[in-house]
Structure prediction request, 226 residues.
Amino acid sequence: MADVEAACAVAGRKPSEVSVVAVSKTVDVPQVQAAIAAGWNHFAESRPQELVRKTDALPAVRFDMIGNLQTNKINHVLNRATLIHSVSSLDLADAINKRVLTRNTNATLTALQPVLVEVNISGEQSKSGFTPAELCQTAQQLIDLKGLDWQGLMTMAPAHNPDAAKRTFEGLRELRDKLQVQLGHELPVLSCGMSDDFKIAIAQGSTLIRLGRIVFDPNYAKGVTR
Prediction:
């Protein structure tokens, strides 16, 4: 995508350092197939039932889980989501871990589940996730969960506020750096930045941006090419 490459150039980063996921939660399978034909190969869903439906229809395509995940829906996501972006509490992490270990014991799942921990950097009550202080306190417990491959952090910034977005994404990067020292464990993935603020996120170190409207809304996507 040309805009991502341009944002990387401004930030002094290589485009290969930033992955892009097309958020397909508002469209149906034919629109995803059209996006695949246009060159997109990495998608994300926010509802477990939609993840099931689309992975059944497109079994060879990578899908991530980015929305709130209830414990009674975990089995819908395992073996389908390449990466879960939204582990928002220690209880949820523990529940996913137990399901993974059970499936490994039963030989129905033979790999760890890659996850990102969701952090509410901005402090907005409408957003879920660990506070930075909570995450620092519980990080060792998270890293000790043997069924999870904890790869990094995810956050969302306040809408329509570039200054707040910059502070949020900068705060996520700084928290990641602190945790890496605290844990002695690399957390290479920073999932932050969406259609309205991905350029800011790239400047602050995001490695994975989530684009929905740019990809699937023709009105929003005018002038954007891939």
Remarks:
- The chain has one domain: 2-216.
- The domain at 2-216 is CATH 3.20.20.10 (TIM Barrel).
- The chain has a mean pLDDT of 94.
